[in-house]
Amino acid sequence: ATAGQVIKCKAAVCWGPKQPLTIEEIEVAPPKRHEVRVKIVATGICRSDDHVLSGALSLKFPVILGHEAAGVVESVGEGVTKFKPGDKVIPLFVPQCRECRCCKNPESNLCYKNDIGKYEGVLLDKTSRFTCKGKPICNFISTSTFTEYTVMDEIAVAKIHDDAPLEKVCLIGCGFSTGYGSAVNIGKVKPGSTCAVFGLGGVGLSVVIGCKVAGASRIIGIDLNSDKFAKAMECGATECINPKDHNIPIHEVLAKMTDDGVDYAFEVIGNTSVMTSALQSSHFGCGKTVIVGLAPSTAVMSFDPLLILTGRILTGAVFGGWKSKDDVPKLVCDYLDKKFDLDPLITHYMPFEKINEGFELLRNGKSIRTILTF
Ligand code: PAD
Ligand code: ZN
Known about the structure:
The chain has helices at about 45-55, 100-105, 165-170, 175-185, 200-215, 230-235, 250-255, 270-280, 305-310, 325-335, 355-365, and strands at about 5-15, 20-30, 35-45, 70-75, 90, 130, 135, 150-155, 155-160, 195-200, 220, 240, 265, 290, 315, 345-350, 370-374. It is an alpha/beta fold and about 375 residues long. It folds into two domains: about 5-175 and about 340-374, Alpha-Beta Complex (Quinone Oxidoreductase, Chain A, domain 1); about 180-315, NAD(P)-binding Rossmann-like Domain (Rossmann fold). Strands 3, 4, 5, 8, 9, 16 and 17 form a seven-stranded mixed β-sheet that branches. Strands 12-11-10-13-14-15 form a six-stranded parallel β-sheet, with helices on both faces. Strands 1-2-6-7 form a four-stranded antiparallel β-sheet, with no helix packed on it. The longest helix has 13 residues, at about 175-185. The structure holds 5-beta-D-ribofuranosylpicolinamide adenine-dinucleotide (PAD) and zinc ion (ZN).
């Protein structure tokens, strides 16, 4: 009944950094050619959204944030053959066009048509489908899910299994897959190895889960907030340490604990000095460090190049290296087959209108993932 028409609905609009989101009535235009309009059913709050609110990431305003979600197709634009109204879907903040140089490279999961780092705030046709109070509202990293309805390019949407519980698998849209894939695809953690995970939020705990599935024998969690440790142990950490409890640098603490350094170190905070600590914590000759955290737009990392010269490997990835359109449906099936659990990551459910409270819980270190439902 709504196909082809402008939909008026509620959205959380971000008018600028350092101010609360406001719930507004917005207009969502119908999908154009090769676009899909989706009714969002559940969306998680990720630290990357908060990086925009804190001002750490600079992009264009006003914008509708949110990128970790699941929903149902409402209508499709011209030329769309792989989706129909009613299909369950997950938005893809890293699209997969299958045609660009990165998509054609089996080793990469980036896509030239992504908006991360560019932050143009538009769909592929260079406009967004949102307006509010007569003003255009920008799109966020190909997705924008803090709204009842959103429009995405079809390359930025994955169709998932009909049985998937949307209020859980929304986490496969970002936090879970990013962390888990960083361990299994990017770190390629080996059985019997020692891992250090810096930052035990939703993404860091998912790294822990990945390290455990990969057979690591020691998984050391590191966080400034010791309240995160119980959950980390539940997810598979074998020990947890708080840098505040030590008067020597954390890499020296780890060196003592691990016979000179870990096999794999993961930075899951977005702090460049912790990235250097992670690199310093990895063993010379063979240690691998994976950057997962998103640093502020102006941040620069510095370290002694001898750390790399002596054989350490430093790498990183967005979305855990998964080729999004190919792999998200498989991850959903793996979840349905009980190959991993998402429940330990979910600490709160809230109605969408309470979105600012959800962000407060994240900032105060009280939540892992809050899932907003519509
Ligand atoms: P979160 O805020 O839930 O978790 C971060 C954790 O780090 C918290 O538990 C903090 O207490 C802890 N912490 C903060 N500073 C320090 C410090 N100096 N030393 C030790 N611990 C510290 O965030 P999240 O898990 O949602 O996201 C983590 C990062 O990953 C964040 O930067 C986010 O933007 C990024 C991210 N990257 C991708 C990607 O594709 N690469 C995807 C999703 C999120
Ligand atoms: Zn995210």
